[in-house]
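Students often ask why we bother encoding 3D structure as a string. The short answer is that it lets us treat folding as translation between two languages. Here is a chain of 271 residues written in the first language.
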Amino acid sequence: MALDPIALAQELLAAYETGSPLETPFSARDAAFDLNAAYAVEAEFARLRIAQGHRACGLKVGYANKAMWRALKLDTLVWARMYDDTVHFSNNGAAELALPFYHAPKIEPEIVFKLKQPITTAGLDAAAVLGLVEWMAIGFEIIHCPFPDWKFQPVDFVAAFGLHVGLVVGEPMAIDDARIPGLVEELPRFKVKLQKNGELIEEGSGKNSLRSPALCLAELGGAAMARGSELEAGDLVSSGTLTNGQMAQRGETWSVEVEGLPLKGLQLKFL
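And here it is in the second language, the structure alphabet:
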């Protein structure tokens, strides 16, 4: 018997609200649990959160690396919704975030976009998709895995709302037509330096997000359209990690510096 998306979404919501881990990933419970089933669970989870009074405010990306797609049997990236109570804005590039019970979260530096127009066409190039963007910023996505030992398949990632528990957005930079040609060239090449308590942990690059965060945004637009979830004006998009995800704990201060883009860095302290 196929797994019930309503029951799975309720199970995930309980885990999200209490921090209690699930015993097994859904893919291990039913070998037939596929992406269609996973997106059905993600949609039901969104319905439950909206019924609680929350608002979906955009999408986050997963598997923004084409080299992984063949091994994982994907034909595009995957995505999940973010919410008004999970997205936080920094104050002049600094923020604090409480971690109430997530005992093993990871932190990922990502480029965040805000759309000023919907994405209604698949296959846009970098310049065309940037023409739909109001602003961009560096951000930190915080993820937490409800499955044991961070072991899961892409279908589990989708069903579990992309493991998303928070997005912290740095200082936005407005995008106008004059900026776009430069950004097309800079977004694949820019670098980031990720630090913990002032110590360099890892360096990353824009190419790690599907060769360019702009191309990742365009790919996401097409992938969402294919499943009836068109990106709309005002939506935020967290466009894929620029480094490996790093384990984080309460009391740590993380920062990211950006080189090669006119973006202010971001500092985040976990409480």
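Translate back mentally: The chain has one domain: 56-270. Keep this in mind for the problem set.
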